[in-house]
Amino acid sequence: MRQNRKPSAVTDRSGLAGATRLVVKVGSSSLTTVGGGISEAALLGLVEQLAAVRNAGTELILVSSGAIAAGLAPLGLPRRPRDLATQQAAASVGQGLLMARYTQAFGAHGVTVGQVLLTADDLIRRQQYANAFRALNRLLALGVVPVVNENDTVATHEIRFGDNDRLAALVAHLVKADALVLFSDVDSVYDGPPAQGARRIPHVGSAEDLLGASIGRTGTAGVGTGGMATKVEAATMAAESGIPALVTSTDNAARALAGEDVGTWFASRGNRRPARLLWLAHLADTRGRLILDDGAVTAVASGSRSLLPAGITSVDGDFEAGDPVELTDTAGLVVARGLVNYSSQELPEMLGRSTRELARNLGPHYEREVVHVDDIVLV
Q: Are 264 and 247 contacting, i.e. CB atoms less than 8 angstroms apart?
């Protein structure tokens, strides 16, 4: 049976001041100059607020962008590169610079930091997930502030989180945080462009609260990968799985962490799920689809049944065992997503047959489910 985790004990923004464990994310636009270097004043100001929270007893994980942006100036690059290889080179140079500044800045307040670089595989593969959980928990137990970033130097387009907002949401689930705080260069979510007199949205309790809002996709500084849209997506992702989130600006850091009425609060709703299922529901690029008969659709939609080969009518796409796939009805409506246990080459001869028959004719390996219930998310 799937084990759901309890919702966060923090029920509104005022609870941030007394939170036991927080994940805070800061974007490139809040840390770097337009020319691409690290803004010393911005970094020192943020660290001062975060160190005060840590020294008051709250366990803190900082998910920090800025490595690629910090590497631009040393490499003589006028803007963020478009090709992956140059992005990786900039990240390699910039990550060291960024960590050196964090180490020095936090150290001035008596706080030790540790670098943690993650790829998507680290949060979706069971063994790597367990290793990442243990490492972060041990760092927190030792009083360290882990500084987390995507491992841009080795990540490929196929296994990237896409941006650190989504990474922060997954890390918040990994460490069972009380709340997620997303800092950027905009003080709140608005229902349109703030410069045109748009209205601040102070509280989001459901998707209906964002209906009609025009939310931008690019930041003002031009050095990040996302914009307000990705922060809303990440905050929604967290909230729908039991972790509340606050979206506001770095300038509001002190007030936000003190629980004051700033930014946009995304109230938690629903139960927490494992990070790999959160990734599967919101971020995974599916490699194919399995078309199910009516009985299998009903079984999968119940949320308590695995998908067996007898209920699959056809297979579409090219995928390997362990890849994410869509589960659809015969009309093509996507019912769920899942991590498949067989490749697209193995499945065709299995369709419509019972696992007992398959085990008898093809061997015991074929007695497994096509997609286990613990690896299915309804959409």
A: yes
Cβ-proximal residues to 283 (8 Å cutoff; 6+ apart), any chain: 120, 161, 162, 166
How many residues would you count in the chain? 379
CA distance 3 to 8: 16
pLDDT along the chain (379 residues), means of 10: 56 93 92 75 95 96 89 86 86 91 97 90 72 93 94 57 80 92 92 84 89 64 60 90 93 95 91 73 85 95 92 95 93 94 94 88 87 91
Q: Are 63 and 167 in contact (CB under 8 A)?
A: yes
Cα(64)–Cα(323) distance, integer angstroms: 29
What is the dihedral angle through the alpha carbons of 198, 202, 205, 207, rounded to the nearest 10 degrees? 20
Q: Where are the beta strands (DSSP E) in the chain?
A: 21-26, 59-64, 113-118, 145-150, 179-184, 203-204, 245-249, 264-266, 288-292, 312-317, 324-328, 334-339, 376-378
Using an 8 Å Cβ cutoff, are 92 and 153 in contact? yes
Instruction: Tell me the whole-structure pTM to 2 decimals.
Output: 0.80
